[in-house]
Amino acid sequence: MKDIEIVPFPPSGYHPLVDFESWRVAVLRPCEDLLPENLNHLQKHLYTDEVFVLLSGKCALYTAGCEEIPGAIVKTEMRLHEVYNVKKGVWHTHTLCEDAEVLIIENQDTGDENSPKYPLSKDMHNRILELEKE
Q1: Burial class, 45, CB count within 10 angstroms (exposed 0-12 / middle 13-18 / buried 19+)
Q2: DSSP code at position 6
Q3: 3-state DSSP call for residue 110?
Q4: Which of 27, 39, 91, 93 lies 20 to 30 Å from 12, alpha-carbon distance?
Q5: Per-residue confidence (pLDDT) for residue 49, from 0 to 100
Q6: How much is the mean pLDDT over the chain?
Q7: How many Å apart are CA 108 and CA 18, to the nearest integer?
């Protein structure tokens, strides 16, 4: 057994890096799906918070409340090396610039089966595109 596991960051998208017992560390890097024009859904996690840390570049978090269906969309521009804890049940998505790297800490069992998605309506998508310009 090695004392240290070294895991390189993959080139794009979301990738779990380390799973241990009940937690996971993952990385999010730019990919086509996270370009503002390509966003098509919000997501929420039913059983866990999700922590984001911007390591480089720019990333905007978009949240829309925690009701059964998303509410008003709010933009939070992430700052480097600050911890952003999206609470359990909050609808969210994000956009990344081309050189962004975001560290994610979440429960190891977080996945599609306990993280419903809500398709963005045309109005919701337009709101995100407007907020991107600010």
Answers
A1: buried
A2: -
A3: coil
A4: 91
A5: 94
A6: 93
A7: 9
Task: 6-12: list long-range contacts, CB under 8 Å, 24+ apart.
Answer: 9/101
Integer CA distances (angstroms), 127 to 52, 69, 84, 130, in order: 23, 16, 22, 5
Q: Which residues have C-beta within 8 Å of that of residue 12, sequence separation ≥ 6? A: 29, 30, 31
Residue 8 CA to residue 64 CA, distance in Å, equals 33
Looking at the DSSP assignment, which residues form a beta bridge with residue 36? none
Q: What is the mean pLDDT of residues 103-129?
A: 96
- pLDDT level of residue 18 (50, 70, 90 thresholds): confident
DSSP conformation class of 59: E
Between residues 41 and 20, the one the model is more confident about:
41
What value does the CA radius of gyration of the chain take, rounded to a whole number of Å? 15
Q: What is the pTM of this model?
A: 0.89
Contacts of residue 69, Cβ cutoff 8 Å, sequence gap at least 6: 118
Pull the structure tokens for residue 78. Answer: 């992430």
- Percent of the chain at pLDDT > 90 equals 83
